[in-house]
Amino acid sequence: MSDPTDPFADIAAALPTFEDDAEAMMSLREQAMRDPLMGAPMDVAGPGEPEEMIEPGGWHTAGYLDRRTGLPSNCPVKSLGQGSDGESFYFLNTLGSVHVLAPNAGKGHIDALFAGRGLYLSWAWPRWSAPKKGLSYVTNWEAEQARQALFAACAYKGTFELEDRVRGRGAWRDDDGSLIYHAGDAVWIAGRWRPPGEYGRFIYPGRPRIGRPGERYEVAGEGSPGDLLFQALQSWNWDRGELDARLALGWLMTGLVGGALEQRPVAYIVGTEGAGKSTLQKLLRLVMNGALVSTSNTTQAGIYQKVRQDSIAVMVDELEAKEDTRTTDKILELARIAYSGDKMQRGGKDGVGQEFAVMSSFLFSSIALPAMDAQDASRMAVLMMRERVKPAKGEKPVDVLKDLGLRDGAKAQAVGRHLLRRMFKWMERWDALRDVMRETLLAAGHEDRAADTFGALMAGCHVALSDDMPGKADLAQWTAWLSADQLAETATREKTWRRCFTHMLQAQPDVYRSYAKKSVAAYIEAWRDKGHVDDVLVRLPEVGLSVSWPKGAPEGDFLSARLFVPAKHPALHTLFAGTPWAGRMAAPGPWAGVLRQMPRELWENGKCDKGLDRKASGIFINLAEALEA
């Protein structure tokens, strides 16, 4: 009998087992027990037909074969197709995993494909003894016949590309928008659990199991698992208090079904030593029930090798700010691609590139936030942890996780299953909920990307804590929490063109090292404030820039001046060295394209018409207006 004081007892007791929710899916051992002894007939049933005893090798003449592949209709191995290289033959083996055979596959390779079903091979492709007194008996199985039949089945299925067809563990969307969830050893599709296999256009191979949702939908409210987890998250000393706890909860909810969402917001937790990052990560690992790749000191390739075709979440610890940012940049690039589920390319065997989609939600943590591009920062919520508040002298430390029962791994996992069940239920309304949150943020002054990111986190938090769509009061509270001009992620975020423009003005090039003024900005400020235009006319060309005035405007007038930025110039290439806008020497630099992203009224295309290269192409920037924009 369950403990009435334990809110998790009934949930844990109701967790579905493999047998409870998939009676039709027998274990491999149970399937093997139905295989006949060597030489004996096998019970075989055609579609809608009663079972019939079929002698070894007699399935073909009896008509018990798959009309598309030519394999026995009850074959435990499924052909997927032939690789485009002509050298790879793809199957689902007896465990439902993707298995590849080469053209020279021998008996041992086929044995491995049929592992656990060895007696089936001797029934399907029997090797008969020489007749003795008019009788023959089965002695083994014919590898040559089996290989020919298996390879022919792949050819009949057509070309197979692993990256395009395979969906690993985690959540996905069906063609009709409904949820598909691959738990490793079973697939939730069309409203019920099924064994791993081929469904529609996709392959859902057998993989190590991850947690499935709780059997029953538990209503929200005080004391519910969602509420208890929210209380637990509030026990950390977040910089923005309740808001950061809610955003952390929202990330967890979106991470549970990341592959089924249009956007997968990134969360970055920053916290000093003693803030409790490790404890939080342990709690998240338990609640995610195995649907999480947790790693540290890794690389982009290392993450891909762990995730493969899965859509489960990824947690990267210790992504510290370092002088050499190349590894960090690549990992952040992977998270950026995963945000919208885009595809990326990587090298493959024999020099053949491979393309794959990244569908995981990412969470990072470190002591310091590393340098990152605006395109990466715009896709994440940054949650800052401060050191835990120490109890006053003589007071006993408060252990909120223990008080809530969440230091018990089984109970924490039960919470995760409950929350996953809530996401299953809410997926029917997810798009509508996300749109309500997104529109609320847009009306409050947020740009599209911020509305996508924080709207999804808001929706995830709401699913964990509520059974109904948000009301006006809920939306008003979120608007107050996520004020566009107060939220650190948006209030301090600069557009890329502004960062490029600012760098061009404030960088200190070597050519100015011996001068009193060290930057372009210093010369422009002296001109604007003190009228020193002569220095501008002399010094700016030393870094590839120049100043001019439209026809009819008085020369030297700051308000009408135009700053000419050439599309290519060796001095500008040096000025932008070490930035994403440097480009290659003697080629047009990326800086011109980025600066064209500023408001259209601030610039126009044109040619220098000065100096040695009067035909140099570039852009004219309305200097005074651009500085105020």
SSE layout and pairing:
Layout: H1 9-13, H2 18-21, H3 28-32, E1 42-45, E2 51-54, E3 78-82, E4 89-92, E5 98-101, H4 107-113, H5 118-124, E6 126-128, E7 138-141, H6 143-157, H7 162-165, E8 170-173, E9 179-182, E10 187-189, E11 192-194, E12 197-199, E13 202-204, H8 225-234, H9 242-256, E14 266-271, H10 277-287, E15 292-296, H11 300-307, E16 313-317, H12 326-340, E17 343-346, E18 354-357, E19 362-366, H13 374-377, E20 380-385, H14 400-404, H15 409-426, H16 430-443, H17 448-465, H18 472-481, H19 488-491, H20 496-506, H21 520-530, H22 533-539, E21 546-548, E22 562-566, H23 570-575, H24 590-595, E23 603-607, E24 617-622, H25 623-628
Helix pairs in contact: 8-9, 9-17, 16-17, 21-22
Structure, explained:
The longest helix has 18 residues. The N terminus is likely disordered. With 629 residues, the protein is an alpha+beta fold. The chain folds into three domains: 138 residues, no CATH class; 267 residues, Rossmann fold (3-Layer(aba) Sandwich); 133 residues, no CATH class. A five-stranded parallel sheet has the order 15-16-19-14-20, with helices on both faces. It has a four-stranded antiparallel sheet with strand order 8-9-10-11, with no helix packed on it.
